[in-house]
Amino acid sequence: MASSFVIKISMEIQIDWVSDMRNYKLTIAYDGSRYQGWQRQATTDNTIQYIIEWSLGKIVGYRVQVDGSGRTDSGVHARGQVASVKLSGLYDPEELKESLNRYLPEDIRILKVELVKNNFHARKSAKGKKYEYYIDCREKPDVFSRRYCYHYPEKLDIEAMRDATKYLIGVKNFVSFTDNKDTNDTVRKIYNIKIVRSGEKVRITYYGSGFLYHMVRILTGTLLEVGTGRRDASKLPVVIAAEDRSLAGFLAPARGLFLRKVYY
Predict the structure, then answer these.
(1) Nearest to 176 by CA among 186, 166, 189, 185
(2) Which residues are catalytic?
(3) Which helix H or strand E contains 19, and what residues bound it?
(4) Which residues contact 242 (CB under 8 A, 6 or more apart)?
(5) Pick from 58, 122, 130, 51: which is nearest to 86 by CA?
(6) Taken in order 170, 172, 176, 181, is the CA torsion positive or negative?
(7) Whole-angstrom Cα distance, residue 226 to residue 246?
(8) How many of the other CB atoms lie within 10 Å of CB of 45?
(9) How many C-alpha atoms does 196 have within 13 Å on its Cβ side?
(10) Which of 27, 115, 241, 248 allows an S-S link to 111, with CB 3.0 to 4.6 Å?
(11) What is the reported pLDDT for 89?
(12) Could you read off the pLDDT of 36-79 as tens digits, one per residue?
């Protein structure tokens, strides 16, 4: 009888704890240069996810789990990564943001905290993403942006690259454009690809329902090969149909890539 009473009390405490949880949406910017990507790993604490979880835990007094909208690779940056976390009790979003930023290193910054519905999930609720890739085509890399651009000192045919995007836009199986050999879900939709030149610098912006491991960086390498005349854009449908990674372009370096925005 006593044990039943203890179990009942324990269940009531657990139910109260769950019912008291609030869901928070975090918008995050970070310089990924010195981190091993977004995702928490068993072999290192040097990831964005772990550092934010540790910092939040110091504030609330217990271990938390932060769910990101998706992974970014080692060295990739973000201007608008989104994460969600459930916390016990009600916190003022602005005060929580300021407290969290005091714990975080200067290359990780919480831009916004919002109280959202409990069914919101940063990854599962996402409808699309916007990525930007920056390229520096001058002879010598720019002193101030060299850590955030891929130095590619080649003359690019921007119109040829823009023309090539028509073969990549739409719903397609992008297995030729990923380095993850274990995934079976390789169909994605690219809504648009914009290529803008500003002086000796080029920005490629990708809008899509989601992106596979290394997909944006391989697409970028492929478009750069088109821009230098090393690849015939009209053959891109063959590359897609072949479902063969070796036929697509090179993997552009991580430092030029930014997760710009997540759409909900």
Answers:
(1) 186
(2) 73
(3) helix 2-19
(4) 176
(5) 122
(6) positive
(7) 16
(8) 10
(9) 8
(10) 27
(11) 86
(12) 999 999 999 999 999 999 999 999 999 999 999 999 999 999 99
Q: What is the mean pLDDT of the chain?
A: 93
Look at the block and give the residue holding tokens 């940063």: 122
d(CA 15, CA 19): 6
The first and second tokens of residue 212, run together, are 């596979």
Q: What is the DSSP-derived secondary structure letter of residue 93?
A: H
Q: For 63, phi and psi rounded to 5 degrees? A: -75, 135
Confidence band, pLDDT 50/70/90 cuts, at residue 19: low
pLDDT digits (tens, 9 = 90+) for 89-103: 899 999 999 999 999
Q: In the beta sheet, which residues pair with residue 109?
A: 29
Q: Distance (Å, rounded) from C-alpha 203 to C-alpha 198?
A: 8
Residue 220: its H or E element: helix 215-227
Residue pLDDT, tens place only, 132-185: 999 999 999 889 899 999 999 999 999 999 999 999 999 999 999 999 988 889
CA distances, 166 to each of 193, 234, 264 (Å): 9, 10, 25
198's tokens:
């500003």
**Bridge pairing between strands 128-136 and 150-151:** parallel
This prediction's pTM: 0.90
d(CA 112, CA 36): 23
153 vs 140: CA distance, rounded Å:
7
Map out the domains of the chain with their CATH numbers: 2-116 (3.30.70.580), 128-263 (3.30.70.660)
Cβ–Cβ < 8 Å for 236, 164: yes
Q: Does residue 7 have a pLDDT over 70?
A: no
Q: Is 133 annotated as a binding residue?
A: no
